[in-house]
Structure formats: structure tokens, C-alpha cells
Amino acid sequence: MSRAERHRLTSLHDVELATLAASGDRQAFGELVRRHGSAVRALLRRIGATATEADDLAQDAFISAFESIAEFRGEGTFASWVKKIAARAHARRYQRDRRLRMRIEAAEPEDVGHSADPSGRMDLDEALKSLAEAERLCVSLCYGAGLSHTEAAEALNLPLGTVKSHVKRGLDKLKTRLAPDGDTLEGRRGSG
Questions:
Q1: Alpha-carbon span 189 to 170, nearest angstrom
Q2: Given 3-state DSSP classes, what are the helix, strand and coil percentages for the chain, each rounded to the nearest 5?
Q3: Are the CB atoms for 173 and 84 separated by under 8 Å?
Q4: Domain spanning 109-186 has what CATH number?
Q5: Residue 122 and residue 115: Cα distance in Å, rounded?
Q6: pLDDT tens digits, residue range 38-82?
Q7: In this prediction, what percent of the chain has a pLDDT beyond 90?
Q8: What is the pTM (predicted TM-score) of this model?
Q9: Is 3.60.40.10 the CATH number for 1-107?
């Protein structure tokens, strides 16, 4: 690709790139991957994928996005659209792996203790790791990937009430873990 062509692509909006990609322009789609690939992988890592899984799932998500690029209408951001595709792919893999694990053994979620940095703050990623797998997945899909509770329930093939319960329990645990010792987030908001 020439320098002028590269400059032209980098100056286009995501919707324009998606339109070009829908007409078969692979370089335009490549620019979308370049712009949003790391954010998609970061989301997948946050919802529990290993680095290798995140790379694989991101690649699968972008392939799916390319195959269905004509469906992207620009009503939301391209980043949100492809993140939803990636989150759903992770959810499908999670469900498949979960069924396999259940066949092998009935596993209890690990109880990970508080792991704070020396200043007493806790990293959100570390706090998410302390949640049960289902809670982490539901919270991350709803808040990290922007899926509604209904969309998350469909992606996970779980009842809506179950997803809502996992999200509520997960958020409650995160509030407790991320609050300074002896303090709650609600208490700090009210006293300020």
C-alpha cells in the first residue's frame, strides 16, 4: 500500500472504512483492525481470556465482523460492534468449556484473597479475577462489552434472572473489594 493510500485510510472515519470494507476493500478493513484490535484483546483479557485465547478470539471476532460488515450500519461505534462480537465468541467458548469441565469434575470457584498494591489500592483486573467465573463473565459482558442483560443471557444461553443475579453479586463483591478497608463506596460518596 502506498503512503498516500495509507494516509487516506487513516484519515477516514470508522463508518467510512466499514462502507469501503463492505464493498470489498480489505485494506479499509485492515485499518479497522489496526485501530481496534488492541481494545478488543484487552476486553477479552478483562473478561477472563488468557493472552493466547484473547488473540485467537479477537482474530475470530474480526473475521466474523468482516464476513458480516454489511450489517454494520454505524448506529453505534464500530468498536462497540466488534467488541460485542468478541464477547459473544468468548461466551460461546466459555459455555463449551464449562460443559466440558462439568463433565470432568464439579469445580468450586477459587477464593482469591485481597491482593492490593502497597498503596492500598486494588487493580480492577485483579478484583475481577477474584469473582466466580460466571460473575466475572456476566459483569464483563454487561459493563465491559456493553451488552444488555438480555443480550448477555442470550450469548451465554442462561436465563435472564440468572445473568442479573451474577451481575448483582459480582458488582457487590467488586464494591467490597475495591473499597478501602472499613469503607464502602456508598459511604465515601455520601461523606464528601
A1: 20
A2: 70, 0, 30
A3: no
A4: 1.10.10.10
A5: 7
A6: 999 999 999 888 999 999 999 999 999 999 999 998 888 999 999
A7: 38
A8: 0.61
A9: no
